[in-house]
Automatic annotation (TrEMBL):
Record-given protein name: Beta-lactamase family protein
InterPro entries named among the record's database cross-references: AmpC-like, Beta-lactam-related, Beta-lactam/transpept-like
UniProt cross-references to SUPFAM superfamilies, sorted A to Z: beta-lactamase/transpeptidase-like
The Beta-lactamase-related domain, residue ranges: 11-337
PANTHER family reported in the protein's UniProt record: D-ALANYL-D-ALANINE CARBOXYPEPTIDASE (PTHR46825:SF7), D-ALANYL-D-ALANINE-CARBOXYPEPTIDASE/ENDOPEPTIDASE AMPH (PTHR46825)
Superkingdom of origin: Bacteria
Species: Streptomyces antimicrobicus
Length: 364
């Protein structure tokens, strides 16, 4: 890996409209750590390379690992009915839905943050975007409340007959963990994963809106009565995405976790193999995407994440865990659409890290 090229690849995210990025790459030659952009709008200081950030859906890999540890212990089977362990949700919860279907996004459950309608237009659920989210970003939600909201809406398909990414699957997985263990999800995460790995900067924050220092600030740009506004959303209540996107971490802790997972330190080999087996149109295993990046790069496993506003995370590795990339991103006041610009910057970065050389120029 070329250090100048890695820094250029990081800077590409800033050039694409992000406020800042902190990044860490580990391989057989050691580690590269760097950042680009600004820690806070109006300032000149770069984001701290040891900063905490909201990791969004990267949380799902932690939760999948937690559930699979319970499977390994015999507390539940991977193909056991979820409803059988959560009778209070019956009959709304289809008894055909299994643990595997939750982790693989094949349950068919409506995603409580919204779903595409019949014509492909996104139909919002519980407010996770725009002014509605900004105004309610400190509200506390309960896991069962989120799941029941989803169960009150039609399923996308019959259990096991399709695949659709749904936050409901992982919030329901949290309810399952708590039912099986008799303890809060945050406590189980600490005891079974965070504590043993020494992940002192990773936490399930519950209803606390505080992002511990050090951190870069995240911003959210939204339209209100025809006027565009930008608000600092560093403080936010992540219970909107319990188990699906509520955790806080650092690039170092994400690297430690992902390397340990892929190298077999957290799960028995047969369960890890199933976790890494891609399924369906999403290429999703059990809490992980598996993606072939083509000639010269090969297969990587990953789970990126985005908080509702202000923050994003990257967690990518080779299947054997020998090379990993972890990063935290913050959005600023740019009018650029991250959904349009992010894939280009990410493609360049992945080719640099996992292809061993600079990427081809991005298409215009």
């Amino acid at each position: 890996m070329s250090k100048p090229e890695l820094h250029k690849a990081a800077q590409a995210f800033v050039d694409a409209g992000f406020a800042g990025i902190q990044m860490r790459v580990h391989d057989e030659d050691g580690a590269w750590v760097g950042s680009a952009g600004v820690r806070e709008l109006g300032g000149a200081e770069e984001p701290p390379t040891d900063g905490r950030f909201w990791v969004g859906s990267t949380t799902k890999t932690f939760v999948a690992t937690l559930v699979l540890k319970l499977v390994a212990e015999g507390a539940i089977g991977l193909d056991s009915s979820v409803a059988g362990h959560l009778p209070r949700l019956e009959p709304a919860l289809d008894e055909r839905i299994t643990v595997r279907m939750l982790l693989q996004h094949t349950s068919g459950l409506y995603s409580y943050t919204g779903e595409p309608g019949p014509d492909g237009t996104f139909v919002p659920g519980i407010a996770a975007t725009g002014k509605a989210w900004v105004d309610n970003r400190f509200r506390t939600y309960r896991a069962e409340e989120l799941v029941r909201f989803a169960l009150d809406r039609p399923a996308r398909f019959e259990p096991g007959t399709g695949q659709s990414y749904s936050n409901t699957n992982y919030t329901l997985a949290v309810l399952l963990v708590e039912e099986l263990t008799g303890r809060p999800y945050a406590e189980e995460m600490r005891q079974r994963i965070l504590g043993p790995l020494g992940l002192r900067d990773t936490l399930v924050p519950g209803d606390s809106p505080e992002l511990p220092e050090p951190h870069a600030h995240g911003y959210y740009r939204y339209e209100d009565a025809g006027e565009w506004k930008v608000v600092d959303v560093t403080r936010q209540n992540s219970t909107l995405l319990i188990g699906a996107g509520d955790m806080i971490s650092t690039t170092q802790d994400l690297q430690t976790f992902f390397s340990a997972l892929l190298r077999g330190r957290l799960l028995p080999a047969p369960l890890l193999a199933q976790m890494l087996q891609p399924h369906g149109a999403l290429g999703y295993g059990l809490g992980l995407f598996v993606q072939d990046l083509g000639p010269g790069v090969g297969t990587v496993v990953h789970h990126h994440g985005g908080a509702p506003g202000g923050y994003g995370a990257l967690m990518v590795g080779t299947p054997d865990g020998r090379k990993t990339l972890t990063a935290g991103l913050t959005t600023g006041d740019s009018a650029a659409d991250p959904a349009q610009e992010f894939p280009k910057a990410l493609d360049r970065l992945l080719k640099e890290v996992f292809g061993g050389g600079p990427a081809a120029p991005a298409a215009p």
